[in-house]
Amino acid sequence: MAYQVPEPKIFACSQSMVLGEKIAASYGAELGNVLFSRYSDGEFQPSFEESIRGARIFIIGSTHPGPENLMEMLLMIDAAKRASARHITAVMPYFGWARQDRKDKPRVPIAAKLVAKMLETAGATRIITMDLHADQIQGFFEKPVDHLFASTLFLPYLKSLNLDNLCIASPDMGGSKRAYAYSKALECDVVICYKQRAKANEISHMELIGDVEGKNVVLVDDMVDTAGTLTKAADLMMERGAISVRAVTTHGLLSGNAYERIAKSMLTELIITDSIPIDHNQKKIRILSCADLFADVMHRVHHNTSISSKFLM
């Protein structure tokens, strides 16, 4: 009799429960039962309400701020390890703290490295994530990291728009590699925005490298936080003669005055994934779900089949 690989168990952190339910449904499984107990001072404790001994489990949870989201993932991994789970895969659609991937001035932490070490110490045996802020973060781990690209979601949508005179743009120099990958897939030109910051989340000056006159521009980036860079870039491009400006960003942090800036900007549309739950009441925002992508990769990981097609731009 052929050996049947036991099906994995899928759980979700509280901050990603909606996405977790979508991923589990796409996988063809029920989301596992986790009880979250909370003390009056705010301390919390997750508890798996079913046996996971010897099982492969997937724990779904984005680690966007505040810090309790990361802490919840760490506690669930630790609980799974102590409950004798065989494989513990942290499925992190958004890997938080990734912007602190190096020392950009003296006496600051490298938070992305610290988070990687904490996940491994807690007991994670594999990480699945999407569009890291910096590719080299994969090297912070000693465990396998499956780094997926949301371009597998965005490119079909952009092609469906059938835009003439398409042009891909990067809102900063750091995103030029991503912009060139999109331009290659869509066979179009690239322009780059050069910006200078007065401090975090505050732009002092922006210039455009390239010509956007008469073109439909698509800005690509890994995340949108306060939307200051994207909206300023969109306004600048419209001033330089662009027909329209859309933005494709994987992770919608949308903090501060982001919604107001987007509504008042020259952006035609902001396309994001549901890697981070948002209060969606903005006409300009379109959300593409990443649930099928993660469910497919989880299935391939469990059955030891190739996932290299999900790494390609």
TrEMBL record:
Documented EC number(s): 2.7.6.1
Domain Ribose-phosphate pyrophosphokinase N-terminal: 9-123
Molecular-function GO terms, alphabetical: ATP binding; kinase activity; magnesium ion binding; ribose phosphate diphosphokinase activity
UniProt keyword Magnesium, yes or no: yes
Top EC category: transferase
Catalysis: reaction(s): D-ribose 5-phosphate + ATP = 5-phospho-alpha-D-ribose 1-diphosphate + AMP + H(+)
Keywords: ATP-binding, Cytoplasm, Kinase, Magnesium, Metal-binding, Nucleotide biosynthesis, Nucleotide-binding, Transferase
Any Gene Ontology CC annotation: ribose phosphate diphosphokinase complex
Record bears the keyword Transmembrane helix: no
An annotated GO BP: purine nucleotide biosynthetic process
Protein name: ribose-phosphate diphosphokinase
Taxonomic source organism: Flagellimonas sediminis
Source lineage: Bacteria, Pseudomonadati, Bacteroidota, Flavobacteriia, Flavobacteriales
Gene from which the chain derives: prs
